[in-house]
Amino acid sequence: MTAWSRGYVADSPYTASYHPAQVPAHLALAAAMNGVAWRPRERMTVADIGCGRGYVIAALAGANPGWTCLGIDYNPAHVSELSDFADAAGLDNLGVMEADLAALSDAEIDSLPPLDVAMLHGVWTWVSDAVREGIVRLLQRRLKPGGIVYIAYNALPGFGADAALQRVIRLGASMQVKGDSTERAQAALPLVRALHEASAVNLPKTPMLQHILREGEGINAAYLAHEMMTAHWRPVFFADMVEALAPARLDYVGSATLAENLPDMLLEPAQRAIWDDMPEGVARETIKDLFLQRPFRRDVFIRGARRIDRQEALDPIILAQVAHRPEGLPFLPTPRGKAELPKAATDPIMAALAQGPQRLGTLRALPERTLTPEEVLVMLDGTSTAMPIWRPAPDEATLRKARRFNAGAAAFHAAGGVGEERIAMASPLMGAGVPCTPLELTLASQPDIAEAPDAAVLLDRIRPGLEGEEREQAAGIIAHTIRERMPFWRRLGVA
Fold first, then answer.
1. Does pLDDT of 281 surpass 90?
2. Which of 233, 244, 248 is nearest to 282 (CA)?
3. N or C: which end of the chain has fewer CB within 10 A?
């Protein structure tokens, strides 16, 4: 770690990744499911606080020319990279700010624009009390009435089982004299494996440990370093989060993980009976966290909740199909096991979506349908089959902006169509990103992709020099990708 980093890992970059649960269109879904009035608008100011390398806020800027977007991070390397990315992608509506939130004065905070949306993904878990207080001061002073907040964090008691694992990784890393945090995190893994093989009783086989054991030497060590090696790693209970945010006068809305808003999908009957007896808010969420294996929470708060009828909130939301339905019976993993969704329930919905984007109220009114609006949302979101759109008819300037972002993102993050980062292409209809592979982003950003050029021609353009069997296989993958994805790219305004 560096001397100036306040105990945070800053000597190696974090992974660039896109998280669809944190974007405004998705937050509108979470609000509607919980009977809270909130929708995105054509003119908004959106901030990603602790944005890391900034892919999410950059994609939002690319998909929404009318938004003022702001990426804030403590690490100057992240800020420098995001500034270069913004230039490459033509993001004149994205501001990038290097800031120590523990040290910002009230006057400096007040120089920021008033915020409609604030997003914090993971940040809270890794920073000191002084930085947490700075975050709350920023929200208190700059979040507008009616402004919405997404805050994702490692939660107790679910993540508490990894406290020993975190200390072991820090111990193993501290014994490695040379190298940056990523290299030292990698060097700690033999100790983790040795302790597991020796049946260390206080090193439980949590999902995180299973991930480390499964990935072996191929694990993303940069992710591991940032997740587990900060000096301020502290999961928190939901009640503590509510108390910490109280000075900003925020009301809890619900979970950005949509299935977590449906207790029938989460809790056994005996668990549900206890939950029903609890008052709404902190009590119910605490009980839910005791029953669920939920180490990571994605909470949505709002400054001034306006309660409305849930059906009234859900019916106007427009969904668009973004991928083929999974083979066989769709199912969702839940704490109660796999929730199978029979074809009789899903076929009418998928047939309607195949004709184009549909309002949730239209899907609810289908005579054959057997699912509630909430179940429709959870099914489509959980299987990555459909996503919300809120701008059905973008103008030409919006289309150009999104396509310029995709071309810039392909050059900056997916050169040659290769890479392992979780990225997305900007959709002007969704006002957000569509998760994709580097190859998909590279292909969709080709200026002539709508004319379906020959796969071999595209291959020679993006990865010249391949020969023989390798070239034949790569061309086949490109042809298959275009065939499978082009209908959705057209539908979402990407191609």
1. yes
2. 244
3. N
